[in-house]
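Field: COMPLEX_INPUT
Field: COMPONENT_COUNT = four
Field: RESIDUE_TOTAL = 1317
Field: MODE = joint
Values follow.
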Amino acid sequence: MAEMWISMGPQHPMTHGLWTLKVKVDGETVVDTEPDLGYIHRGVEKICESRDFTQITTYCDRLCYASANTWSHAYIYAAEDLLEVEVPERAEYIRLVAVEIQRIASHLMWLGAYGPDIGNLSVMVWCLREREMMMDLLQELGGSRMHYNFPRIGGVKRDLPHGFALRARHKLKLFLDRIQEYEALFDESTVFLIRSQGVGYAKPEEMINHGVSGPNIRAAGVNHDIRTSHPYSVYSELDWTPAVERSSIKGADCYDRYRVRVEEMRQSANLVLQALDKIPGGAETYHEPGDPKILGKAPIRAPEGTSGSHHFEDSRGESMFYIAGGGEGRGKMPYRVSIRSPMFITIPYASKCMIGYKVADIPAIMGSFDPCIGETDR
Amino acid sequence: MASSDWLDIRGWTESLIGWSMDKTHDTLPSEDIDLEFTISRPEWFLEEPIVIGSEINLQSGFADIQSSLEAFFISTIMCTVVFTTMMLTLMVVPYIERKFIARLMDRIGATTSLRSLWIGEGPSTAGDWWNKLPMGMGIPIGMINRALNSSFGNDHHLETIDRVGNRGYHGIWFLFPGFFQALADFLKFATKEHLVPDKADKLVFEVAPVIIIATTIMCYAFIPFGPHIWAANPELSLLFLMAIFGIAPLGVFFAGWSSNNKYTLIGGMRSAAQLTAYEIPLLITVLSIAVISGSFNILEIVDFQIENSDTWNLFMLPLGAALFLITMIAEVERIPFDMPEAEAELVEGWWTEYGGIRWGLMFAVEMMRAYAACILFAMFFLGGWEFPFEDSLAAAPVLGFIFEKLFFIIPGIVVVLLKAWLLFAFFVWVRASLHRIRTDQILEFGWRYLLPLSIVNLAFAMYLRLEIWTGNSWPIWVPPVITIVSIALFIIYAIDEDKDALEYSRRPYNTQTLDKAYPGSRRE
Amino acid sequence: MTDDGQNYSMFSSRLLVDTVGDVTDEALKASRLKDVIGVLAGRLFNWGQRKSLFPLHLGIKCCALEMAAAGASRFDAERFGVFFRSSPRQCDVLLVNGPISKKFADPIVRLWEQMPEPKWCIAMGECAISGGPYFQSYNILEGVDTIIPVDVYIPGCPPRPEALIDGFGKLREKIIRIGAMPSHSRLESEAPIIIGDI
Amino acid sequence: MPVVSEKTQQAAAEKLAEALGKMEGVESSVDVRTSGTQNRPIVNASVSPENWRKVAEELKNKHEVDHCSMITGIHWPESTDKTWEVVYHFLRTGIKNPVIEEGLVVPNIVNFSKVKGKQVPLEIQISVKIQATRTPSLASIQDIWVGADWNEKETWDLVGIDFEGHIGMRRVLNPHESPVGFHPLQKQHKLRYHGFEEMYDDAQGFMRKPVDSSRVK
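Field: COMPLEX_OUTPUT
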């Protein structure tokens, strides 16, 4: 059959969000692909230039809406680097708890969206059921279900509420047993193994050169993780190792990326349990919001010429913020905020990964890279 | 003597029609009626008058056509009876699908009920709609409503009660929450605007769904619901049924091709390839059933299982049962073989462009085809309208008497429907737990595995029929041995613990696609 | 749907349908049966339309996740007949759940045009109502009602799944009050409902 | 959790900074980030636009900097010494393909506490200042780090800094039909309602009380 361009348009069940993948198809096999992004480009970097430092965290929550906390924390670390702020130890532990629970919720959202991509609807409902547990925990911290505006420059908005540690331990233990349910549905189903093994190969050196990072590169048997290679926060205090997957010789395929993320969910749950035990001052002591134990002093103006940047391990890859100080209002607002979205770099690479596979493999490969278009289009 | 039960609808209609035909025959005047009449012409025309008409005896004339008239009336009545039983029992099938898959997904599923016909939505209600009926027809309805509301404690200041405040009288309308969701969907489809894409090939776009719908409903002419509830029973009803069942993919391909959309084009081609790939194993499996039961007529197949051999074909041909199930899931395009309607990459597959009533009918037809597949499985393998362990239970020493009465009271149709619905629940269970297989894997699985297996199954059926069949029953040891051996084989093959795969610390599996694909095998 | 040029076959069935249609119509009107059927069938089809609202499987931004959560097991939207379909032909509610950028303006209008007629539009979340936090952006339209007539607004950023299900409830109220009228003839007569103020 | 020790990272950063310093047109320094439990050195260098391409190749081949993290274009209309600035961020991750023994991939788990030489992970920030020109342009590093490809497209699309030698430069985030010279992140483009008092004055639509008519909400 003659080759024809199919546009898997902005509104398509495969795209988790709005973007178009133009696919040149010869019969059933994919010959060439070309992503077209920008459908929800809303100029967050331009808006941040006329917002002051505390207002920007709300915009960073809404960057990648599946993992709001990781993005607002990424911005806050960069802002603290810009304003040279000291963060108390307890606040670092609370931030770690919030970020890791958000990572579990983000991976659950991915697993839920990956099921229907390959054809199984019940896994989406199961994963969202567990995600509701995680969102309840984060709702106790941040106040709302999805966008928490939780970190402040210099610490956190509020301490762990009473009984949070107890509920968190209970829910995380329950979650650790529930992962067996998903593994039964995925690993033991021969159909899933056929659809995901040997599909969408990617070698680690080629990936890092393309700028792909995070679970996608750890699936290829390499333990590159910003939290270990460029340690920030208190990750070096807790004993954990990045989840690395034994990939195939030709590189990581969809199955490895699935295995890495399931492993990471377990690992994040253990991280939170450890952090809740090791938190200085104990998980049950409660400090009023604004208490110096959880919120350090922070200036509100950044003079011109100063700049701050920070690499952060988001659930989808390496996110980064670069802030140049000295904007309007005598430095109250940043001059330029630049956001590195891991998926903005991974989607073009992932679409090139699909060449040579079948049309039915496109959602399997694209879904396994866990695209989140909110952060891609900024 | 064919198995039968008291619900002999066919017998009643025959006797009714026969009696009424004889009655009309007798009431007709028996003497000849002279219908001759002549047209006289004026004498100057010099020709004899024209004579038209002849003698007619109404009774003898009626006697000639009486038999065909009876046959016509009987088949019309039986067709309507079978069609209504099918449509009413079909309401259960989407109910099972929506509720069972919701429960498997830990959800509640649809809870619409006819009660909401009566009560409003939140604060706004339909008001006294009955007063709009002409000629005061609405007044009695209003009175009844006010009486019910007041006697069952609704504050009837509102004409129709509001959903939130009033639980009130209309309780029985709350029957089977969710049962009428399919009816609500269908009513909505019916009132939808009919859109035809302008560059689509109009004629084929309109005709394609008709092909699918017509052929599926024609299948139900040959499917017996009970010993005496069938519309037509030709000698080779099985062949006729399978032939008609196989026409629908043509309609699917037309629909995909004509709606002039790339997605539907790929969806249509995929469905054509998949259905042809699974048509042949299906036909061979059905052939093996005909071989083992000794006839092509579905009624006789069921009677063979109930009367002659007294064992269900499931225990004689377990491999055939498994093949039939797999090929039927593929024929009906349900989840593991769902590629043509693949949600993920083809939006909706071949029915993306269809909206409104055409899509509603095709939604219903999907259910009908799955329902037909379930009933056929019940007929071929689960002994149609025979209660499981009917004879042994009836022959039991003490309780046997009660069971005998019970089996006599319960008509065959109830047993058939229960088996069909349980099988449909199995279809839904498969849909909830498996992922979608890629098209080339489906075709490869169909050609490489199902076809040879079905031929092995056919050979086995022939051997059973020729060698082992003793004229009136299977030797006593044959069904248990076959069942135990097949269960053992199934367990051996199902366990795919693969020693060298285990040390890869991954879940092993052994269904092979192109090459033996144990985990790590594709890690060349 | 009067494509007159389309003559399916030698014998024009359209002519037959028209003539038979008119004759029966007159007869029913004369015998007042049309009113009886109109009222009773009206209630039945209104119930049918209310009880099965199929939104389009369109996820723009964060509200899409709340839409998915509404479809999941904790806030099961399917209890109210809300069943997500992914082709606009088979949907009757366009649930807009994110900011509309200039690039997505005409695709979403095309989606709205592709939907068969008794169709409604629910603007879910601040971005769909007024551009939300990005109302100053150079690339975002201020609300989806700049391009599509909206029936129900659900404020919130993102609105909780219960608010989404309440939004569908409000839409059902609208349907029971004014019936499933085509959207173009609905424009003036019906003010859009904003959750929380009634 | 074994973490790279501060000493080795600081030493590696100084070695790289001084190696970069030697190249002409480059000043480089090492500043330390203190947030978190461990101080992390960042190699900071500012390079003149002409020999930026040479420095890039040097980084990639000699210093094995294998990950281009982000490219930021900034428009400084009022500042004296530069009107355009491009800030590059790199990471040296030391990722190697896992070694394959008898058909089995052995994942290479790097123990960061015992890591030496080129393996030490480093952050590098390079800023290139471009003088006052209407068409700022810079050498493209698309062929060295493929990851920089879409970053450059985005920088051109939003800030308007062109990259010579970039294949397939097109608008990625803005709509394709946006006007040719329109690059939103330049300072002359203002946000809608920027500095607009009455927008905030009666955002709720009721008249403002006279007493605070002057104050901006």
